[in-house]
Amino acid sequence: MAPSASNSLKDVATSPDRPWGLHWRTSYWFTTYVIGLGVAVDIVVYSIIVPVVPFQLEHLGYTGISALSGWLLFAYSGGLLVATIPVAVLSERYNSRKHPMLAGLIALITSQILFMEAPSFAVMCLARIFQGISSAVVWVVGLAFLCDATPKEIIGRQIGFAMSGQSIGLILGSPIGGTLYSRFGFRGPFVFTIICASIDLLSRLAIIEPNESRKWGVDPTIYPRSTSGSSKETAQLVTEGILPREASSEPQSGIESVDCPLSLVQVMLKLFKSSRALVALVMAFVYGFVYSSQEPILPLHLQSIWGLTSKKVGVFLLALSVPMLFKFKASSITGWLTDKFGAEWVAPASMMLAVPWFGILTIESSLPLFGVAFVLESFFTSGAISPLTAELAAVSRNIQGVGYAHMYAAFNVAFGIGTTIGPIVSGQMYDHIQKGWLATCILGAALLFVAVLLTIPYTGDKPLLTRLRNALMV
Predict the structure, then answer these.
(1) Can you give the pTM of this predicted structure?
(2) What is the spatial distance between Cα 169 and Cα 41, in angstroms, rounded to a whole number?
(3) 439-461: burial string, b at 16+ Cβ within 10 Å, e else
(4) Which of 62, 234, 273, 371 is 20 to 30 A removed from 431 (C-alpha atoms)?
(5) Residue ranges per structural domain of the chain
């Protein structure tokens, strides 16, 4: 490295205007923590009312509880869908991630205050809409932020760690909701979620965007590589994450900002022309449908078959949280496997392993067996999220002009449609079909199987069908 470049680097590193804690505040590990926390808080807020709302609606004198619970989830998904596209477009156009994330958290806190004081079902729906808007920010801007700040070599692994927040949120949300509701009443769960959101707010305030950190010579997207000879000093600076762009001969790992942003129509046309992108979005829809379809009817099924009250539902889910602590490992494990072997192997395997447990969930003879099946079904279904989000990042890198926020906005739309339709369909099936829980489980298993079939010819850099053809031609 030339002496002038080295001296310039040292001046930047020792400048009094340099933000405090620049290294850790802009590192991909801290970014992973912040996005993972945001996902966990979002899912806790989403799921904490699952064992609470049916009994609160009964308390307020409503009937047709399963259908009303489904409409509440519909309101959430509606807010998510409406906010997704504007959030993605603004984030990409102005190349900003932090400010939308802070605005989303304000929407989340607002939703919790509204729900906590809701005197009617209509106000509950309004609160869920605000919550959906907040979720759009986490799942679009948050994931795009993580991809911006992470070397492409380890995006799958870091997304897996961040997506562990989803499993942690699902594990904690329902048990805490039922317990707090039975102990402190309807406001109890929402006081808890507001505290969680406050911790999330502090974390988001601390983070520094990569575009800002690069001005101070710190680039979190540079992944350390082995070097020798005259590049020894440069290698040391890369390892430490202190290196101006002009001082590095390595290409940048992250996706650079699009020089001329595409319109929404142009982005959509490019996505529709990519079979790989379309299959990834179908997977997102299926995941959203399966993920949300059981939630509004699970407390009612437990009450109907085993006579569990709101408190007992909370205790049951709390008991399941012990083995489900391993569930948060699913995303990190599949993320690491995706980086190593590719999404074409991991995504179908994870979804296929979830299918048999849907059948066991229909057995009504044993509550412990039901609990085991529910844990394993959730574990393998959650394992599909890391290869899915890593696949979307890979698709974004291969389509000129399509940024991470665009890709995760499309994911959010597909996922949001799934979470919109899922609870409505399951609620109506549970109310109008004698074996509504059985029908819901069969439908979920069938959709997962269809998604597996679609991944074989289209998912990954080398889809399984392509690998099979090449093997047969040898």
Answers:
(1) 0.69
(2) 6
(3) bbbebbbebbbebbebbbbbbbe
(4) 371
(5) 20-216+252-465
